[in-house]
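TICKET: design request
STATUS: open
ATTACHED STRUCTURE:
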């Protein structure tokens, strides 16, 4: 039964990883810079997914969602961060040098630490990610599951995440594709920025609606 559960979780998570969203958009923008930055962003996203997994399996995510005030705070913080990231991307895309230089990103943005933290916060502060993992684990993982099984689940979630985003990091920063992405950095920043802003607005709109 555990093996079937692990396979089911891995399949659902892999499909979710491959779906377009803020994480994928961030990887595209980071791929216009050095490979190390893209890999660091992949590690940051994967680390956030691991934290979401731990929070869900330990019941903390359920407590957050069960508290209207706390969940509202998470949504507001997440939407503000995603909106700020989106505006920053759009501003970067409007910089003329971004479309013409081989190293369009400012030095402060291309460090590994910066890439890791942007990847981490982009996923960690997305309320939709919290709800997704909470729903996934509450539906499939028994409350009586042992910590051995939970440890295996954490390894699967982190391993698949880093494998997928790491593959993207290496693939997008290889050969002619990397050169093409660098030339299209302006457009990628603008499109990714718009996506981040739309997601931020949708979170706030949902908050106001309810």
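STATUS: resolved
RESOLUTION: sequence designed for all positions
ATTACHED SEQUENCE:
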């Amino acid at each position: 039964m555990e093996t079937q559960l692990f396979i089911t979780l891995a399949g659902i998570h892999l499909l979710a990883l491959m779906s377009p969203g803020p994480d994928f958009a961030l990887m595209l923008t980071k791929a216009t810079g050095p490979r190390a930055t893209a890999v660091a962003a992949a590690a940051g996203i994967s680390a956030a997914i691991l934290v979401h997994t731990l929070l869900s399996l330990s019941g903390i995510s359920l407590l957050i969602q069960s508290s209207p005030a706390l969940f509202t705070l998470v949504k507001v913080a997440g939407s503000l961060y995603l909106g700020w990231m989106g505006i920053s991307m759009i501003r970067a895309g409007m910089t003329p040098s971004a479309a013409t230089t081989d190293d369009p990103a400012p030095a402060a943005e291309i460090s590994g630490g910066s890439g890791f933290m942007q990847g981490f916060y982009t996923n960690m502060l997305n309320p939709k990610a919290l709800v997704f993992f909470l729903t996934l684990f509450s539906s499939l993982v028994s409350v009586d599951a042992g910590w051995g099984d939970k440890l295996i689940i954490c390894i699967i979630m982190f391993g698949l995440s880093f494998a997928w985003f790491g593959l993207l990091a290496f693939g997008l920063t290889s050969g002619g594709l990397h050169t093409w992405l660098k030339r299209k950095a302006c457009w990628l920043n603008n499109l990714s920025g718009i996506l981040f802003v739309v997601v931020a607005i949708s979170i706030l709109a949902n908050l106001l609606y309810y």
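CLOSING REMARK: Residues 2-74+98-187 form one domain. Confidence is low (pLDDT under 50) at residues 98-109.
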